[in-house]
Amino acid sequence: MRDLTVLVLEDELFQRLVTVTALETLFPGTVLQAADGHEAVAALEGCEHVDILLCDLKMAGMDGLAFLRHATSSGKVRAVILCSGLDPVLRQATVLMIHCLGLIFLGDLGKPFNIGGFSQLANRYRMLCNASPKSLSSTEMPSLSEVLQGLDNGAFEAYYQPKVTLQEEILVGAEVLARWVHPEWGVLAPAHFLPVLEQHNLIDRMFWHLFEQGLALHQRMSAQGMLISLAFNLHPAQLACSTLTERIPIMLKRAHVPSTCVTFEITESGLLSAPANSLENLVRLRILGCGLAMDDFGAGYSSLDRLSELPFNEIKLDRAFVSKMQSQPRSAAIISCSVALAQALDISLVIEGVETTEQRNRLLGLGCTTAQGYLFARPMPKSHFIDYCRSRLIAHVEVLNKGKSFEL
Questions:
Q1: Is 316 in a helix, a strand, or coil?
Q2: What is the per-residue pLDDT across 15-49, written as a single tens digit (0 to 9) for each?
Q3: Which run of H or of E encompasses 276?
Q4: Which of 29, 20, 40 has the alpha carbon at shortest distance from 125?
Q5: Are 53 and 77 contacting, i.e. CB atoms less than 8 angstroms apart?
Q6: Is the pTM of this model over 0.85?
Q7: Which of 17, 81, 192, 293 could disulfide-pair with 314, CB 3.0 to 4.6 Å?
Q8: Using CA atoms, how far apart are residues 329 and 362, in angstroms rounded to an integer?
Q9: Which residue numbers are catalytic?
Q10: What is the DSSP string of 1-60?
């Protein structure tokens, strides 16, 4: 196990001595210390790198915030643990700043210093350092020729992630997601290929592949008595296309799919500088009878403004609010307000990123009704999704036999 270099930035003498002594006693490696940012800068200059910065924030002279900025420019600090008595809201804002600076954030120990908590976070750092690389990293992109070959061979497949009610887990729809079934790397998520598609204006080509697959599935399931609503993601660049709202009704009619069974999800950030024809297409999609969902609601800077201006009938709350419910009380308040907002506007609210039973129970208490996430189901290929829906249909029949109502 590799020894670590730790820098303790703490202005209170007693607290600093306790921390340094505990680290030197229990952890092999080098422990540096500094009473303010200027001393920390000097400590950095005298060493090759610092694995973990144990950082207080408020102090005279150069404070912890200023030093974090300097640490980024030096390139010598790899990870940060906060150890501060500041208000939790201010510490959380600092966590966001740490992420933006490109540093690894390991955790927030607060004050007083807890050696057990540090031990756990240090082990987490070692695990990150020792993690074996994946066959295709999230930053490694395939070539244009590989993507074109995949499109030509029909290797981009529609995967389906169910949307369910939180209380009874009744299926209410599914989001259609792009996956590339690569012959060497297996099933790839959009992070691996979307930048290449965007760069070479291939988003539209992939979208129509997925749209056709989704409509074919809907047609097949409808013939078996299973009616399902499908949501497709529209890229902002597609909204400016004049043929978008001409082609969609033709394909819907050909597949015998009601427009009311199709929703298009658009991220709010993609509409910040949308041209007039993009806004026209949004209106035309609603006139056609299709649904419009504002995706990643709350992640942008003008969600409320766009929601009031454009004809959305659904909002999907960004998954970040769910993941931060436990650590940030304000996130729960934002979710509760989103519930009230959706009710006041008479539109649907879907909560994204529900992964644990604890999150589900908390969301139910906040008044949420519909969600999607790994707790209920991961995105799945067509055959698995059909089996999933059939199992729901069996549950439907069993419930009806008991005299209760159920909707698929």
A1: strand
A2: 899 889 988 887 778 999 999 999 999 999 989 88
A3: helix 276-288
A4: 29
A5: yes
A6: no
A7: 293
A8: 12
A9: 352
A10: ---EEEEEE-S-HHHHHHHHHHHHHH--EEEEEESSHHHHHHHHHTSS-EEEEEE----S
